[in-house]
Write a structure and sequence with these properties.
Largest sheet: 7 strands, mixed
Strand order of the largest sheet: 2-3-4-1-5-6-7
Bound molecules: guanosine-3'-monophosphate-5'-diphosphate, magnesium ion
CATH architecture: 3-Layer(aba) Sandwich
Oligomer: single chain
Radius of gyration: 15 Å
Number of domains: 1
Order of helices and strands: EHEEEHEHHEHHEH
Mean pLDDT: 90
CATH class: Alpha Beta
Structural class: alpha/beta
Low-confidence stretches: none
CATH topology: Rossmann fold
CATH superfamily: P-loop containing nucleotide triphosphate hydrolases
Length: 175
């Protein structure tokens, strides 16, 4: 039995891997619930965030409309938490994370987030173009955590969604 129904947002600049992370997470259970004409995909999946405890996540992907103000209200309304995603192979994407965080706070309030450095698999190829200690520090300063993922090979993808669920539940239960 699922106790929590949580709206989860994928936020971050274009092409950092938001849609790929969702598809990797949903795996065989991939079901596209519906696609709004405004370009938001919503997918659902149950997660076991602790032994015997599950939550139903509805995961919102803003598609190619990242900066269009007209869908902001719908996208952010009632959100429980967000994955803030940047691309470990492009430093400018980490540079814009603070703006994304501000936007989340402005439209959804101070909801829990997990900072995601995606495309971990590319580091051997492109080198370390972002100071990853700084990423960790930023997340921790904001009372959050930093996780490095690869939507390509699956590294830490489940963990990212589960850790976010845990942060939301902990906040909800006043821990
Ligand atoms: P977005 O939803 O944030 O815009 P997408 O990003 O999920 O559409 O991904 C953008 C591109 O990055 C895609 O490549 C996708 O395959 C690639 N990508 C996503 N995640 C990873 C990852 O973890 N590792 C690597 N190497 N690539 C990734 P294309 O070429 O299809 O545009
Ligand atoms: Mg996308």
């Amino acid at each position: 039995m699922s106790t929590y129904k949580l709206k989860i947002l994928l936020c971050g600049p274009a092409a950092v891997g938001k849609t790929s992370l969702i598809h990797r997470f949903i795996k065989s259970k991939f079901e596209r619930d519906y696609k709004l004409t405004v370009g938001v995909d919503i997918l659902t999946k149950n997660v076991e965030y602790a032994a015997g405890k599950t939550a139903t996540l509805s995961i919102w992907d803003i598609g190619g409309q990242e900066r269009f103000s007209f869908i902001r209200t719908t996208f952010y309304k009632g959100a429980s938490g967000a994955l803030l995603v940047f691309d470990l192979s492009r430093s400018s994407t980490f540079g814009s994370i603070k703006n994304w965080r501000s936007e989340v706070v402005q439209f959804a309030g101070n909801i829990p987030f997990v900072l995601i450095g995606n495309k971990l698999d590319l580091i051997p190829e492109v080198g370390e173009v972002i100071d990853r200690d700084e990423c960790k520090e930023y997340a921790e300063d904001e009372g959050s955590i930093y996780i490095e993922t690869s939507a390509k090979d699956g590294t830490n993808v489940d963990e990212a969604f589960i850790e976010l669920t845990r942060l939301i539940v902990a906040k909800n239960e006043g821990k």
